[in-house]
Write a structure and sequence with these properties.
13 strands; single chain; seven-stranded parallel sheet; 351 residues
Length: 351
């Protein structure tokens, strides 16, 4: 697997990226015509803010890439973001990956929407995947989206059942419509379970500042503030910044709820795993694998590909024995899950 690492400047990044990916396959002319591998033997993953190693969203996508490399025999390329990069940088990255013959080319995160809108039409034989965005569409674009609010509702049920202080926290990395879905589901789950529980929501940054997804110190400070206000359960939807929150909550002896990946199982968080009650999971791993497989099978996914509770595309991790041993909590979570699937509970997507 070839990994393209962060490069300080946009110009250097573009040049080095083009050189690196062209070493993996044929490059096209400057006309932008596609030379993609229609059999899906080469694939590329362009990471979101925080990059691989965030113990969360990007790492879940990486797991899908590794699975495809192992099970499907594809040659994989990873491309890292640079700090403070522009949409133009993303356009350069995706263009270089497509010209190198990768198919599909997958952008991890909604931030790739403007770039895919520009690049996808220039490479009609290449499938472009984008995770967490359905705003940019096209015949060769697969929009991989999740019902995050449903999984977050279950987290709210669990938090309301385990809190002893009647105060729980929610930390969002950046106040975007996507992260508001996490907040909305969590609050609704808490209030439907116990209306006397107070939810303390906090966002780390506001657009266009997206550092709330990448700076653990911001998450740590926010979590400490919520702990100081009496919260004994903190749910963080903040990417790499969430690792800082997990550290603070763990050291305080309180409960964390993780996000995207099963963070109890993340090696980088092993020191804090006993505090991670559960995690709201998104099956990003399988979504990446499924898209790569669809291209390799000659039937590429396109349009909206949605993952919800009904397909186990979102859910709550059951890795921590301390959590699974709480039989009344698990019963409440399972009841809520079935009622959402049956349509008895409709989960809000805005707070």
């Amino acid at each position: 697997m070839r990994r393209i690492t962060r490069i300080a400047t946009a110009g250097a990044m573009s040049a080095a990226l083009a050189l690196s990916v062209s070493a993996c396959g044929d490059s096209s002319s400057d006309s932008g015509s596609s030379t993609s591998d229609s059999k899906g033997n080469k694939t590329a993953l362009a990471y979101d803010i925080g990059g691989r190693g965030d113990q969360s969203f990007n790492d879940a996508a990486y797991a899908g890439l590794v699975k495809a490399e192992k099970d499907l025999g594809v040659k994989a390329t990873e491309a890292e973001p640079s700090e403070g990069e522009s949409d133009a940088d993303k356009v350069q990255r995706l263009t270089s990956l497509a010209r190198a013959g990768n198919n599909p080319v997958i952008g991890v995160g909604f931030a790739y929407a403007p770039a895919i809108k520009k690049v996808a039409p220039k490479f009609p034989k290449t499938t472009f995947g984008i995770i967490d965005d359905a705003s940019v569409t096209g015949a060769n674009i697969a929009n991989i989206v999740f019902n995050e609010e449903q999984g977050s509702y279950l987290a709210g049920v669990a938090a309301a059942k385990v809190t002893k202080t009647k105060k729980v926290g929610f930390i969002g990395g950046v106040e975007t419509p996507l992260i508001k879905k996490f907040e909305a589901g969590f609050i609704q789950g808490v209030k439907d379970t116990d209306s006397s529980v107070n939810v303390l929501p906090q966002y780390l940054t506001q657009p266009p500042d997206f550092s709330g997804f990448s700076k653990p110190d911001l998450g740590k400070a926010a979590a400490q503030g919520q702990l100081d206000k009496g919260a004994d359960v903190v749910y963080s939807a903040a990417g790499l910044a969430g690792t800082g929150a997990i550290e603070a909550v763990s050291k305080a002896g309180k409960w964390n709820i993780g996000v995207d990946s099963d963070q109890y199982q993340q090696k980088g968080l092993a020191a804090y795993k006993e505090s991670i009650l559960t995690s709201v999971t998104k099956d990003v791993e399988d979504s990446v694998f499924n898209l790569i497989k669809s291209v390799k099978d000659g039937k590429p996914e396109s349009g909206e590909v949605r993952y919800g509770l009904d397909k186990d595309g979102v859910g709550l991790a059951m890795s921590n024995p301390a959590f699974t041993g709480m039989t009344d909590v698990i019963a409440a979570v399972n009841k809520a899950k079935q009622e959402i699937i049956d349509g008895k509970i409709t989960v809000k997507t805005t707070p």
